[in-house]
DNA sequence: AAAGATTCATGATAAATATCAAGCGATATA
DNA sequence: TATATCGCTTGATATTTATCATGAATCTTT
């Protein structure tokens, strides 16, 4: 299968210990000595321009990636040309687990804006797992988090009405920003309405109406992509999730 | 947190090499020598009666389980008493990944009928990963499969209409039985309508109507829980999934 | 700055699905 | 055997959401 990936200039070796995401990204769980062993194996930085693909369905799994800057959208396509956004991934997030079943990616990943990623080649990863028990642990935690996020998304799509889906999404995004040291009451949506509507399983028009509804209730205000949460409790009341408040 | 688990009589040590699921269950991917090391660590058999819980949300993750006989339903609950079925798990399936993020189960698992499971305590598992590279590999494959199943479920709930959801579900179940050597055109639904409707994100009445609709189209026939697929191509036409046909 | 394209919002209408209500048949219980 | 209960189906209706159509606002390109 032909791949569309073209890594725009691979950077130099990375240093997790000097990374500004070191409190967020997954190597955070490693001990100091483990980290120094680990760092030398995250051998490359991958740069993608907006709309460039990181991988496509059917591609062989070569590496796991951590987002350093920018954002990535993952999605699934059907035989009839429909698609379903699986997630919006931001700095500190890990990508590539969709390929573990059979070493082949089952989803597509595309840059939503210019994006920089750290690349951890799978061969290195397997060797490292041999010698770093902490890495195995941290990896399983990451996998567990991903599974929990999926569970939460299934609950959202399966049980909630459109207004509640949006409220739940906004709350998760809010928590996500808070964890990264940004404001949890004012932030930008990193994706267009079209993608968000698809992710939330509704028509774009419905999403628009739900934004309008939340605004009329004075729960949020939104201008283009800038969201301000005016009434956090109100938003929480609209969402009935068993809040662990992981990110979407 | 109080747990409702009461393991009804732990059995003796298991032998994967003599298990009738050895072609299906995950240790299948291990080499002969790895398997013998592995077997001794799957130290217990857990027996559950119908409706008994294997674990609940909030319980500490102690073990990973493989289903030997019977079936398990996993589900998530919301603060308002709603719930969402996450999956119906059958012999050969692995359970417990929902607890990896923070060593705490985030979902509930309950026996849909009298069920027997193999228990792999986490402590053993971590030690084994140290010495068995194949186990790490197989485990990551299992995790990858679980993630792929979730992706597929998200697609189903997010994009498909009720008829297509049901058609897709029946096809997956059919493949599942086929892989296990059973008929792929005639089989029993292991769950009541109520649970299936919840899993598929629709009202039980809607599920009934969709079954009726598929019957009228002569695509299936169904009596209580016994399904016969009359027109496999017809069913495939109703489902637009990019078929990897993993199980639901 | 003008023209075109894109993104988003909103109204009117149609379609899908949930809810409410009733009843049927199988199984369990007395 | 009679009775109650449970799981399921089916009909009538209400609600939610999608679709279609239009237009405004923003961004891009010339």
What percentage of the residues of chain A does DSSP assign to strands (E)? 15-25%
Helix content of chain A: 25-40%
Enumerate the strands of the largest sheet of chain A in spatial order, edge to edge or round the barrel: 1-8-3-6
What name goes with the CATH superfamily of the largest domain in chain A? Answer: Jelly Rolls
The count of β-strands of chain A is 11
Please give the largest β-sheet of chain A: 4 strands, antiparallel
With helices defined by DSSP (H or I, 4 residues minimum), what is the helix count of chain A? 7
Question: For the largest interface in this structure, which chains are involved and how many residues does each contribute?
Answer: A-B, 50 and 50 residues
| The number of domains of chain A | 2
Specify the overall morphology of chain A. Answer: globular
The average pLDDT value of chain A, as a whole number, equals 89
Quaternary assembly: homodimer
């Amino acid at each position: 299968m032909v791949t569309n990936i073209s890594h725009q200039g691979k950077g130099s070796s990375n240093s997790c210990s000097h990374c500004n995401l070191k409190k967020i990204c997954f190597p955070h769980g490693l001990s100091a000595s483990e980290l120094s062993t680990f760092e030398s194996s995250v051998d490359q930085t991958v740069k993608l321009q907006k709309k460039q693909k990181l991988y496509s369905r059917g591609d062989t799994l070569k590496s796991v990636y951590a987002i350093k800057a920018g954002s990535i959208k993952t999605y699934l396509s059907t035989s009839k040309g429909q698609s379903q956004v699986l997630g919006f991934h931001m700095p500190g997030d890990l990508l590539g687990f969709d390929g573990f079943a059979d070493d082949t990616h089952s989803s597509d990943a595309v840059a939503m804006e210019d994006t920089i990623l750290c690349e951890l080649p799978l061969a290195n990863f397997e060797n490292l797992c041999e010698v770093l028990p902490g890495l195995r642990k941290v990896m399983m935690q990451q996998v567990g988090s991903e599974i929990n996020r999926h569970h939460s998304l299934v609950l959202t799509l399966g049980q909630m009405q459109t207004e509640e889906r949006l409220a739940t999404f906004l709350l998760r995004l809010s928590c996500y920003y808070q964890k990264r040291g940004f404001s949890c009451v004012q932030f930008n949506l990193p994706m267009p309405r079209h993608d968000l509507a698809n992710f939330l399983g509704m028509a774009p028009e419905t999403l628009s109406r739900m934004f309008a509804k939340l605004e009329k209730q004075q729960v949020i205000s939104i201008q283009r992509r800038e969201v301000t949460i005016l009434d956090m409790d109100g938003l929480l009341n609209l969402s009935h999730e068993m809040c662990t408040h992981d990110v979407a």
